[in-house]
Amino acid sequence: MTGTRLAGRIALVTGASKGIGRAVAKRYALEGATVIAIARNKKELLSLDDEITEATGQSAVLVDEDLTKYATIDQVGEALFKRYGKLDVVVGAAGMLGQLSPIGHIPPDIWDRVFALNLTANWRLLRSVDPLLRQSDAGRAIFVTCSQSSMPAAFWGAYGASKAALDQMIRIYAAEMVETNIKANLIDPGPVRSALRIKAFPGEDQETLRSPEDITNVFVDLADPANDKSGERVTIEN
């Protein structure tokens, strides 16, 4: 699957070492984008880069860092400004499940870690790249959410609450961007094969679910300069 819809675009993808983030990073590269791939797992990032180089002849820019080390995010924004002067697309796909249990049973350190990655890191990311997105002729901000953010489910307290807060933050950002070229949206991917899904539903047959690669069309649609959606929560139906 190759194309030119993102030719010449600069796209940053978090959580790019596995799952949805990895699939989106590779798809963007196949669509012609220069990809900045961020994740903690250096080995998996190198593997991603090998796949991108083999498929496109171009390398990705790899950043093997922990997004909850917030100063790193600011450094990435500064480095992108110096190298490219802009950013066309940012995809926030990094996330963690934490612990599924009654709210009163969630250890404070796990609650804090879930919010640190699922919410605060995305705020720091937006804060860092907002000036770069404004320099694009069509800045696009896309963040991964989940069904539990809009339909509360028992035992999903930390994850669901962090994603609900993310939903609100991105919609607020979209409202703030109405007079600019920036469009900001959320994607609820639905059931997709992933390490997080296995942890949440350990008895589920993963082979019955879509692969991350199966859902990348929506990420390309929302990253396309022609996209005019903003402030929306796009659910990928089965």
Describe this structure in words.
The protein contains 7 helices and 7 strands, in the order βαβαβαβαβαβααβ. By secondary structure, it is of the alpha/beta class. The protein has one domain (10-235): NAD(P)-binding Rossmann-like Domain (Rossmann fold). The chain has a 7-stranded parallel β-sheet, with helices on both faces. Helix 1 (19-30) runs parallel beside helix 2, helix 3 runs parallel beside helix 4 and helix 4 (108-134) runs parallel beside helix 5 (157-176). The longest helix is centred in the middle third of the chain and has 27 residues, at 108-134. It is globular and about 45 Å long. The two termini are 21 Å apart.
List the helices and strands and how they pair.
Layout: E1 10-14, H1 19-30, E2 34-39, H2 42-56, E3 61-64, H3 70-83, E4 89-92, H4 108-134, E5 140-144, H5 157-176, E6 183-188, H6 195-200, H7 216-223, E7 233-235
Parallel strand pairs: 1-2, 1-4, 2-3, 4-5, 5-6, 6-7
Helix pairs in contact: 1-2, 3-4, 4-5
Summarize the structure.
The protein is α/β, with parallel strands linked by helices.
Strand order of the largest sheet: 3-2-1-4-5-6-7
Largest sheet: 7 strands, parallel
Q: Please state the CA-atom Rg, rounded to the nearest Å.
A: 17 Å
CATH architecture: 3-Layer(aba) Sandwich
Roughly what fraction of the amino acids lie in strands?
A: 5-15%
Structural class: alpha/beta
Shape: globular
**CATH superfamily, please?**
NAD(P)-binding Rossmann-like Domain
Provide the CATH top-level class: Alpha Beta
| Total tally of structural domains | 1
- Low-confidence runs of at least 5 consecutive residues: none
CATH-defined fold name = Rossmann fold
Helical fraction: 40-55%
**Helical segment count:** 7
H/E element string?
EHEHEHEHEHEHHE
- Average pLDDT across residues? 95
Report how far the terminal alpha carbons are from each other: 21 Å
Number of strands: 7
